[in-house]
Amino acid sequence: xxxxxxxxxxxxxxxxxxxxxxxxxxxxxxxxxxxxxxxxxxxxxxxxxxxxxxxxxxxxxxxxxxxxxxxxxxxxxxxxxxxxxxxxxxxxxxxxxxxxxxxxxxxxxxxxxxxxxxxxxxxxxxxxxxxxxxxxxxxxxxxxxxxxxxxxxxxxxxxxxxxxxxxxxxxxxxxxxxxxxxxxxxxxxxxxxxxxxxxxxxxxxxxxxxxxxxxxxxxxxxxxxxxxxxxxxxxxxxxxxxxxxxxxxxxxxxxxxxxxxxxxxxxxx
Length: 269
What we know:
- The chain is of the alpha+beta class.
- The protein folds into two domains: about 35-175, Mago nashi protein (2-Layer Sandwich), CATH 3.30.1560; about 185-260, no CATH class.
- It has helices at about 1-20, 50-55, 90-105, 155-170, and strands at about 35-40, 60, 65-70, 85-90, 110-115, 125-130, 140-145, 175, 185-190, 200, 215, 220-225, 240, 250-260.
- It has an eight-stranded mixed beta sheet with strand order 5-7-6-1-2-3-4-8, covered by helices on one side.
- The chain starts with a helix and ends in an 11-residue tail after the last strand.
């Protein structure tokens, strides 16, 4: 009995030691169907519909699914819907990603920003990486004009390394089309390109845009299920839609894309 008790005590001690060794570093949440990492490009000088339609560069799920945008056809106007793909990474590859998360210092950050080059670079994007720890707490690090100027900030250098690694992982695995459970549709008065004029009848059953979420710029947002993707399958970035409001003769620009897991239905105001 004494021998068994000593063995059990030793096993428990080893378990506590192993858990404590990783306590300060990145850890995956127990629910593997949740995001652990997301990278987005935000801000910059671009048309409003581009900004409203822009999705994450990467979303890494705790189960190893890496959601990313695939090759984009080099034509204008391109397809309305983005070419989202999903690649599954291995446990070892996940470990490498988490080591870079730790190198950035994300587990110890709340919401830190590196805007070193804001005074010398105009109209650049801000790259944002978000990490969710084992308790679901969000940690974020933002860098203005990442990669446009050499940085001496170790966290920013590690962020650049993380992007290179995610690019490599996205290109190296077998990718499949990403099928989201929610589709965000944003509507507003857009720019009509006379050279590519394509005005179509309103194709959504919902015609009361007053019930949609309204942004400060008067664009409106609504979320649908994946079945709505059929409406936009052959639409382009230049497609316009007849306004469902009979009092308006201005066609609407629609921006639509599947949402990544964990994204809010409409943009945070």
